[in-house]
Every structure is written in structure tokens, then in C-alpha cells.
């Protein structure tokens, strides 16, 4: 059987996630420049995302327009805990500390390391298929990051850059743990992560002597957090559902270019030759990822799970009367074994092994 498969929903979600997160970096630096404590800012960004998404879910419930998504299960809570610990506590704190001592454009482009860490962990630890084209793309992105670190200006390296790289490693771990949750409601995942991580960081920041900024700064941090952390994460979870972890991380590598682009007018940073060359190398790496085509005959083993879906070649099952199989809906369902051929990504239904 030959099918046509479009990764467009995952690509759009991944790029939109990247735009929102990339834009949050220079705005977070602007908040730091206005005296907001780095650790406290990390907590406010996640609390803004958690509270904002909670209000969104509550509004949808009151209007009876809830999304047809599968809720998190008890078995998935340990993975959520690891997601909060790595990506919600360690990652943002390291990024805020890094931004405090690094130019925003340099920090923004160094955030490409997150995509490389995500890809490497997905390939080595979770055995997700990564072909030669993806590895060449990763090498191009890494070359750009090395060039940037080597000639990024008088304040382009040091402990600040190491802290940004540490944040990227923490988020790379976080992304691969989040893969285990990608069948569940992405808004619920982002909301719970924001509330848990924000509360934890707030307690730690206040215990270390941080004080709340002016109300205007609080509101600005909450808005940046809702857009750059909450909605961005929800979109990234959707991308992983369609594309897998490594590919979603590759698309997400566009985030630093958004941050660097905004940093030039916001902070008057120069458009230097090393910055342009590093950006070109990273762009080549991203193009290699974007132009990948993966197609072969593959076997689907029997599988039972719950997620948002419509009826297509991978979803053919019976419903009780009143359920429209053509409309998005969510319930636990079983997939029968199947063998067919079509272009695909390692999404929820294509996490099979490949010969190396």
C-alpha cells in the first residue's frame, strides 16, 4: 500500500514554536537589564505560562469548547516530573544566568546547541532514526556555534556562554522526555510544567533574597512567559507528535535567528561578519533538515494508545453512535498490524527501528 503523507502540521507547529521562543530571549534580557533578578525572572516566565494556559483552559471549559485531546495519565506523571526538573528548573535558570553576562545575539545563536543536544539524545538514547543528511545538518549548525564562540566579540564567551550551553543541554534532555508525553493534551502539559517549574523557582529565588519587581515588570514577564514558554511549548509538543523529537529540534533551531534579529534594533548590537557567517552555516544545516525525504516499506505492530486523531489510513476503528470519525476526537484505540510504504517521520505511529 502506498500513501501520501504531509508533515506540514508538524512543520508549522515547530516553526511557530521557534519564533515565539526565539523572540522571548532578547525580551528576557531586556527585563534583566531593568533589574529583574535572574532566578526570579525564570520563575515568572514559567508562572506566566502556567497561569495563562490555566486561564485559557478554564475559559474553554466554561464556553464548552474544550479541545478533543487525551489527558495525561498517571503512568505519564514520572515523565512529567523529569520534564519539569530538567527543562523547567535547570534550563531557564542557566539561561537567565547566561543572558546576564552574554550579548543577546550571541546567546540567541548559541541556543542552536539545544537542537544538537536534542538530536544526539534522541539518536543515542531513544534510538530515533537519524540519517546522514540530518547528521550533516547538525555538523553545519555546530560549526556555526563554534565560529560564534571563537569570534563572538570581547564578551562572546566565558561563563555566560557556558551557562547558555548548559541550558541547551538541559532542554535537550527535556525535549526527549517530553516525547514520552506527546500523545497527551499539549496545553495541559505546558500548563502543568509552567505551574510546577514556576512555583519551584519562585520559592528558591525568594529564599535566596530576590524581591519582586514593579507591577509593570511582573506583567511583562508574565506575557513573555505565556508566549515564549507556554504557547511555544504546546506547539513544540504538537510538532513532536507529527515529526518526532530530532526533527522537531531541527526545525526549532530557527529560534536563535529570530532572537538575534530582534537583538540588533533592541540593543544596537552590530551585524558583525562572524555573526553573519555563523548564521549562514546554521541556515545550511537547517536547510538540510528541512529538505529530508524518508520513505520505505515499514511494519506497524499492534499498538493501543489515546490521542487526538481523525480517521485515516492509520486510524480505522469502530465508534459508538454519534461520533463523527471525520472530526478530531480523542479516545483509547487499537491499531492492527499493518505493512505499507509512504513518506513518513518518526511520529506517534512510526517509531520503528532501521538498519544502520
Can you walk me through this structure?
The protein is mostly helical and 356 residues long. Helix content is 63%, strand content 8%. The protein has helices spanning 8-33, 38-62, 77-100, 104-110, 113-124, 132-150, 158-178, 186-207, 215-243, 245-252, 255-267, 273-290; strands at residues 2-3, 295-300, 303-309, 329-335, 338-343. Strands 1-5-2 form a 3-stranded mixed beta sheet, with no helix packed on it. Strands 3-4 form a two-stranded antiparallel ribbon. Helix 2 runs antiparallel to helix 8. The longest helix has 29 residues, at 215-243. The protein is globular, with a radius of gyration of 21 Å. The two termini are 25 Å apart. The model is unreliable at 151-155 (pLDDT under 50).
Sequence-ordered SSE layout with sheet pairings:
Blueprint: E1 2-3, H1 8-33, H2 38-62, H3 77-100, H4 104-110, H5 113-124, H6 132-150, H7 158-178, H8 186-207, H9 215-243, H10 245-252, H11 255-267, H12 273-290, E2 295-300, E3 303-309, E4 329-335, E5 338-343
Parallel strand pairs: 1-5
Antiparallel strand pairs: 2-5, 3-4
Amino acid at each position: 500500500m502506498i500513501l501520501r503523507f504531509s508533515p506540514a502540521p508538524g512543520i508549522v507547529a515547530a516553526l511557530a514554536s521557534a519564533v515565539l521562543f526565539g523572540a522571548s530571549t532578547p525580551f528576557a534580557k531586556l527585563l534583566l537589564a531593568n533589574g529583574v533578578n535572574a532566578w526570579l525572572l525564570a520563575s515568572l516566565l514559567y508562572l506566566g505560562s502556567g497561569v495563562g494556559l490555566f486561564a485559557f483552559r478554564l475559559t474553554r471549559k466554561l464556553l464548552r469548547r474544550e479541545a478533543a485531546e487525551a489527558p495525561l495519565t498517571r503512568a505519564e506523571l514520572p515523565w512529567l516530573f523529569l520534564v519539569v526538573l530538567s527543562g523547567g528548573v535547570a534550563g531557564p535558570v542557566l539561561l537567565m544566568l547566561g543572558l546576564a553576562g552574554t550579548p543577546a545575539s550571541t546567546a540567541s545563536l548559541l541556543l542552536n546547541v539545544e537542537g544538537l543536544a536534542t538530536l544526539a539524545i534522541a539518536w543515542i538514547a531513544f534510538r530515533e532514526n537519524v540519517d546522514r543528511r540530518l547528521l550533516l545538518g547538525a555538523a553545519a549548525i555546530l560549526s556555526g556555534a563554534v565560529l560564534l564562540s571563537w569570534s563572538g566579540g570581547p564578551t562572546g564567551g566565558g561563563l555566560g556562554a557556558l551557562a547558555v550551553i548548559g541550558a541547551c543541554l538541559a532542554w535537550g534532555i527535556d525535549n526527549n522526555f517530553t516525547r514520552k508525553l506527546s500523545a497527551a493534551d499539549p496545553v495541559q502539559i505546558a500548563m502543568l510544567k509552567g505551574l510546577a517549574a514556576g512555583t519551584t523557582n519562585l520559592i528558591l529565588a525568594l529564599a535566596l533574597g530576590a524581591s519582586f519587581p514593579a507591577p509593570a515588570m511582573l506583567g511583562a514577564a508574565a506575557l513573555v512567559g505565556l508566549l515564549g514558554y507556554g504557547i511555544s511549548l504546546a506547539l513544540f509538543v504538537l510538532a513532536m507528535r507529527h515529526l518526532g523529537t530530532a526533527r522537531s529540534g531541527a526545525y526549532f533551531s530557527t529560534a536563535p535567528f529570530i532572537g538575534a534579529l530582534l537583538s540588533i534594533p533592541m540593543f544596537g548590537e552590530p551585524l558583525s561578519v562572524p555573526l553573519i557567517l555563523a548564521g549562514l552555516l546554521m541556515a545550511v544545516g537547517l536547510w538540510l533538515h528541512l529538505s529530508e525525504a524518508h520513505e520505505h516499506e515499514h511494519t506497524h505492530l499492534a499498538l493501543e494508545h489515546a490521542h487526538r486523531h481523525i480517521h485515516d489510513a492509520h486510524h480505522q476503528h469502530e465508534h459508538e453512535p454519534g461520533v463523527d470519525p471525520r472530526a478530531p476526537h480523542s479516545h483509547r484505540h487499537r491499531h492492527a498490524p499493518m505493512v505499507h510504504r509512504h513518506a513518513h517521520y518518526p511520529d506517534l505511529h512510526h517509531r520503528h527501528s532501521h538498519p544502520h
